[in-house]
Amino acid sequence: MAPAYPVLIENNVENTLPDGTVLRSTVYRPAAGGERFPVLLTRTPYGRDLAVNSAYFNPATVAARGFAVILQDCRGRFGSDGVFVPSVHEEDDGAATVEWAARLPYSTGKVGMWGRSYFAETQWRAARARPAGLRAIAPGVSAGGNANNGAIWRGGAFELGSRLNWGHASASLEEIRREHGGTEVLGRELEAWAALDASFADGSVFDTLPYGELKSRAGTFMNTHILPSGGEDPGADTARRWDSASADPVDLPTLHIGGWFDIFAPNTLDQYRRQLEHSRTRPELAPRLIVGPWSHTNFSGTFPDVSFGMLASAGAVGGYGDLSAIHAAWFDAVLNGNASALAAIPPVLVFFMGENRWRSFDELPAPSSALELFLGVDGSLAADPGPAGTVGYDYDPLDPVPTTGGATMLYGAAYPGPADQHAVETRADVVVFTSEPLKEPLTAFGEVTATLFAASSAVDTDFVVRLCRVAPDGTSTAVTDGIVRASWRAAHAGDGRFTPGAGRRLLEPGRMHEFTVSLWATAYTFAAGERIRVQVTSSCHPRWDRNLNTGALAFDSSDTVVARQSIHCGAAAPSRLTLGTL
What is the CATH number of domain 7-140+249-301+309-352? Predict the structure, then answer.
């Protein structure tokens, strides 16, 4: 399907919601007289004319291929009227907008939705309302379904870095403009925002203890939607509004796009799997999946310490075309029935890091086997548990291990991805366990889990586990990681979701407990001659909020104690890493 149409761009196109609120959009559509086209809609809180990564989705080139592309500001954001409350209005507003788009004079009545991050959430919420015109969705780097899977918490720890980043850098400045624009208050509000911004740039905002002190320096949006009220678990207010928007499958074909270093990576995979099972009796709904070596905002496949090659980028996707072209081919198939361009693109494309190539599948496979590697008291990582013993370190909340790479979204110069771990691994509060050089390649695929038999001198603490690749020259780079908050190790409901504080149990100091740490999933081939390494520590700052080791929350307290941590090894306490393999 080659580009065929000149494109007409219309700004400030209005639709009025049932409650009278006016939303505004920019429309890219073929300039083709009386012809009708499917509509591809995205809804964003970040400004509809904010440049979209052209390799991800270029509205002009997609429109030229025979689609009316609509980019809309969400309620209360930029050009649209009303008041923005994250997540709350997106189901009703999205459904009403879909029906409006289906009735446009140049529309065929068929609407698809696309977009990444919050744009993806608006798709799931609109789909849940089942508007008649909605025929397909293409969510990218998508949240939803489990607030304890990187959205608000991770293993019970608050996602401090990404939540503050989102509230400050992505959302609050527009709220200040809308609330105080044209008044004498605007200047003072902007000065306060700039002062807080400077503390993000130098990192001092994250050193604040207790975190509650930030409320006096933050604007209304940050106070209402990011920072909890005193005495609450961090994120609880947001979690009350966080429903399982994408937990249940929808009766629509879906295209899922994710990244191995995305803050919502497991949600993308879970959404795909739910849709796949749902399609077993309805093959026409079979989902498609693309997972690259990407972060939440970086789709290049290139990071400061590692490049996965040109074919890793969203602009190439292994030679199958950029993501923009893949979107167009998929929507042409599911909305128009023209499957010729899509036939050349496999249903599942997964980038395997290390070997740095895409592998294609008819559907995402399960790991063929599992490999257990045991942590040894001598710092080894081997197939046998080895002799009994402990490995210890001290964790001081006032001197936390800095976040270095990973599935992060931090404001400033803390980059996500497979970062060099030298500075981390030279610290006394990080212990490492390293395998012998591999005799042949090993492909880790699927879920990675750590089991720790550990004790602490504190009544509460955290354990962070990181899987790394060690090159023959000794360079260690992160592959994937995870965290567990000891006191919240059992705070999960029967459906696997997490309620902060529910079932919270403090530790008995000095007593050994078994902890399970999810390191999420990966696809990484370790080459012959490389080694596998596991780091164990107790902080990753400012990605996750620091555990004070006292049982109190860092939002309310600045009191800390140093914890003596002991990792038990051996057959009776088999601390280990479990890798899916392919």
Answer: 3.40.50.1820
* DSSP H or E run through 479: strand 476-485
Residue for token digits 């599942």? Answer: 348
What is the torsional sign of CA 171, 175, 181, 186? Answer: negative
Lookup result for tokens 């260690």: 476
Give the tens place of pLDDT for each residue, 537-569.
999 999 999 999 999 989 889 999 999 999 999
pLDDT tens digit sequence for 413-458: 689 999 999 999 999 999 999 999 999 999 999 999 999 999 999 9
Contact 283, 395 (CB under 8 A): no
Helix residue ranges, H only, 279-391? 323-336
Which segments of 45-150 are extended strands (E)?
Answer: 68-73, 107-116, 134-140
Q: In which band, very low, low, confident or very high, does the pLDDT at 190 lie, cut at 50, 70 and 90? A: confident
Q: How far is CA 19 from the centre of its chain?
A: 33
Backbone CA torsion sign across 215, 209, 485, 532: positive
Local structure of 300: helix, strand or coil: coil
- What whole-number distance in Å separates Cα of residue 372 and Cα of residue 420? 25
Q: Which of 175-179, 210-214, 232-236, 373-377 has the lowest mean pLDDT?
A: 232-236
How far apart, in whole angstroms, are the C-alpha atoms of residue 119 and residue 176? 22
The model's pTM is: 0.95
Domain definitions of the chain by residue range = 7-140+249-301+309-352, 369-581
Which class does domain 369-581 fall in? mainly beta
How far apart are the two ends of the chain, measured CA to CA in Å? 36
Q: Count the neighbouring beta carbons within 10 Å of the beta carbon of residue 449.
A: 18
- Do residues 481 and 406 make contact, with C-beta atoms less than 8 angstroms apart? yes
CB 24, CB 14: distance < 8 Å: yes
